[in-house]
Design a protein that fits this description.
100 residues, mainly alpha
Length: 100
């Protein structure tokens, strides 16, 4: 199988990874998570166009962790309730600090 060239994502997205080692299919969960949490609007358009909105939603629904703003964004853009995302359920089970 021929290697597909990685799209031109923002350079800050994969600061800890060699982008040449990434594959859009094998590493889609990692890529979608990074784009949702750290990506620009152009990065978002790349994953939306590549995977499609439904697949991005399905990948995001299975992510263990995601920033609250990222969860809110993907929930709103896909019209999917936040409580259907795995990270939301895990956030709800974490202990919070007491408010004095």
């Amino acid at each position: 199988m021929e290697n597909i060239k990685m799209p031109d994502f923002s350079p800050n997205l994969f600061w800890d990874t060699d982008i040449a080692d990434l594959d859009m299919e094998k590493h889609k969960k990692f890529i979608v998570n990074r784009v949702l949490d750290y990506g620009s609007w152009d990065d978002w358009k790349i994953i939306r166009d590549y995977y499609g909105l439904i697949q991005v939603r399905d990948i995001a629904k299975d992510l263990r962790e995601m920033f609250a703003k990222s969860l809110s964004f993907i929930s709103t853009i896909t019209q999917t309730p936040e409580d259907q995302f795995r990270c939301y359920k895990l956030l709800q089970s974490k202990d919070t600090h007491w408010s004095y």
